Amino acid sequence: MKILVDENMPYARELFSRTGNVLAVPGRPLPEAELADADGLMVRSVTKVNEALLAGKPVKFVGTATAGTDHIDEVWLQQAGIAFSAAPGCNAIAVVEYVFSSLLLLAERDGFQLRDRTVGIVGVGNVGGRLQKRLEAWGVKTVLCDPPRADRGDDGDFLSLDEVVKQADILTFHTPLFKDGPYKSWHLADLALLMALKPNTILINACRGPVVDNVALLEVLNMRSDLSVILDVWEPEPDLSLALLDKVDIATAHIAGYTLEGKARGTTQVFEAWSAFIGQPQQVPLSELLPTPEFSSITLQGALDQPTLKRLVHLVYDVRRDDAPLRKVAAQPGEFDRLRKQYEERREWSSLQVICNDRDAAEMLAKLGFDAHLQES
Ligand SMILES: NC(=O)c1ccc[n+]([C@@H]2O[C@H](COP(=O)([O-])OP(=O)(O)OC[C@H]3O[C@@H](n4cnc5c(N)ncnc54)[C@H](O)[C@@H]3O)[C@@H](O)[C@H]2O)c1
Ligand SMILES: O=C(O)[C@H](O)[C@H](O)COP(=O)(O)O
User: Nearest residue CA, atom 21 of ligand 1?
Assistant: First the structure.
C-alpha cells in the first residue's frame, strides 16, 4: 500500500506508516508522477483534487486534513468511486483563539472593551459556533447570520446578512467558500456590504479569501480610514495584493487554524477514516501525540479583567508573531507558502494550566477554554 501525505501534516508519517509505505510530498505543486502507484492521497487545502489530478490513477481514498473542502471536487470523486474524508472542526478552536488574540490587540490599541461591542458572526458552524460561545462567556453580545441553519430550522436567532451588518461593530466571516448555489458565499462581502459597514467597524476574514471581494476591499479602504481589518485569508493566495496588505491592521498567511492541536486533530481524523476504509480501524487519542508545551502552568493572583485576559491569551499566542513576517516577505515569490510550511509551534489555550486564587477568574477562564483551577487553600 502506498500513501502520499502532504509534508505539512504533523504526525502523518508515523500514523500512516502503520498501514503502508508513506511518502511525504509538497502540496503545492504536488509531484504528480508519485500518484502513478498510490492507493491513498492525504492533502491540505493547497492541493486541488479533481479529475485533472486523479483520472487514470489507482488512488482509492482521498483525505484532507482540513475543515474547508473547496479544493476538492467531491462530485467527481464520487463518480469515480474514490472515497473521501475531511476533518470537520479540527482547527475550529485555533481560529477562535486567533480571533481573540487579534481583537484583544486592537481593543488595547484603540482603548475599548470587547464587552461594549456587538460581534456579527457570519457562518455559525464549528468555528462560528465556538466563537459565539466564548464571546458570550466573556459578556460580548453576538448577532448571527447562517441562512443554511436558519432554513434547516436550527435553534438560534438567525438574522439576515443586511441586519447583521447594520448591528455589528465587529463583523467576522466563518463560512465555507461556495462559488454558486443557494448559499453562494463568493464575494459575500462585496462593495455594497463594505460601504454599508458601521463607522469604525472591525472586519475579519479567517475563512476563505474570496468570501471578501479583495479588490472592493482595497477600494473601500482607500475611501474609508475608519475601518479596521484583520485578514488571514486572501484573494488570491498565495499572490495576495501588496497594496491591500499595506492597508490592513493585522495580516497573516492563512495560519489561523495552525495550532499543533488543530493540525494533529486534522491528521488523526483523516487517519482514522483511512484506517476504517482499509478495514483496520484505529483510534488515536491526541494525548498520545502532543508534546508538553513551552509554558504549561502559571498562577494568576486576583481578578480577571480584559488587560489580564489579553496578557494570558498572548502568552499562549500573540498574533503579531505572524503579522510581521508576512509583511516582510510577501513581495517575494514562494515566501507565503514557506511561512506556512515552516510554521513555529503554536498551542491552544487548553495547554496552559492557570491556577487562580479568585473563584470568578477560575470559572471564567475555564469557560473560555483554559485549563483553569482554583488554588487549593
Ligand atoms: N483560516 C484558517 O486557517 C481556517 C481554519 C478552519 C476553517 N477555515 C475555513 O472556515 C470555514 C468555516 O469553518 P467551519 O469549521 O466553521 O465550517 P462549518 O462547515 O462547520 O461551518 C460553516 C457554517 O457556515 C454556514 N454557511 C454556509 N453558507 C453560508 C452563507 N452563504 N452565509 C452564511 N453562513 C453560511 C453553514 O451553514 C455552517 O453553519 C471553512 O469552510 C474553511 O473554509 C479556515
Ligand atoms: O480549511 C481549513 O481547515 C484551513 O483553512 C486549512 O487548514 C488551512 O491550512 P492548509 O490546509 O492550507 O495547510
Answer: 125
